[in-house]
Amino acid sequence: MPELPEVEVVRAGLAPAVVGSMITAVSVFDERALTRHAAGAADFVSRLEGRSFTAASRRGKFLWLPLDDRESALIAHLGMSGQMLLRAPGAEAERHERVRIGIEHPAHGELAVVFADQRTFGSLAVDALVEDGGSLVPSQVRHIARDPLDDAFDDRAFLASLSRRRSAIKRVLLDQGLVSGIGNIYADESLWAARIHPETSADRLSTVAANRLLAEVRLVLTKALAEGGTSFDAQYVNVNGQAGYFARELRSYGRTGLPCPRCGTPIVREKFMNRSSHFCPKCQRRSKR
């Protein structure tokens, strides 16, 4: 599933083309792409055509394009395999294309924003903007916490929350209500970098370890962002259809049996919830209560 770096790469790629552009036409080819828009395809189309995009925003794994009515936004969640692509007007349909939005930009001319999704877990919607901590966000995003790269992220509150939680630290990192944008890949990579076992209880982390972890989360996300995100297959690409390259920088995730880059001990994989954790059993020893 695309995580913060991948979604931010898409947002940044869309921004120059969509901000200030007018929506000239909307075509919905598969209503499964509108599961977050309960009013259906006709309403979705009518609320977009003729409007203009004023910004390109993101929180965690959600991105949205506010509209010029200042009351609503086009919101996108990419799910497992959703793609937001920029294409020339009249370009051939993409494989798994679900929605196409024609736009006209005062500087760039006509373009098409294409939402393609192989596994149909992603969704688009037009959602009302609501106030949240001094910002306007879609109502579907208000429950999502800020992410560690957000200037308004509250380090002190996050660290205090860790000290009160008896859940495994990896489970806490994946809690989008506490800190957003971190999924399985970047949780494993951050914990490896901080030398913390994924099953360590959050409240057992020392102040030094908790601060080190937050610093490593930021560093890992920043590095992944600089590499265009992590691509293992063609399901995640940027707006131009290009893959990210952070997969070659991974130190623990997906490296089962390979030597730890730090100490040489083979990386192990253990079941975690409905997924897996990857870690070094020597560098990331599990703390004892």
Structure description:
With 289 residues, the protein is of the alpha+beta class. The chain has helices spanning 4-18, 41-48, 155-164, 169-173, 184-194, 207-226; strands at residues 22-28, 57-59, 62-66, 72-77, 82-87, 97-105, 109-117, 123-132, 135-138, 268-272, 275-279. The strands form three sheets. It has a five-stranded antiparallel β-sheet with strand order 2-3-4-8-9. The protein has a four-stranded antiparallel β-sheet with strand order 1-6-7-5, covered by helices on one side. Strand 2 and strand 3 (62-66) form a beta hairpin. The relative contact order is 0.14. The model has no long low-confidence stretch (mean pLDDT 92).
Notable characteristics:
289 residues, single chain, alpha+beta, N-terminal domain of MutM-like DNA repair proteins, 2 domains, 6 helices
Give a short summary of the structure:
By secondary structure, this protein is an alpha+beta fold. It has two domains: 4-141, N-terminal domain of MutM-like DNA repair proteins (Alpha-Beta Barrel), CATH 3.20.190.10; 155-279, Helicase, Ruva Protein, domain 3 (Orthogonal Bundle), CATH 1.10.8.50.
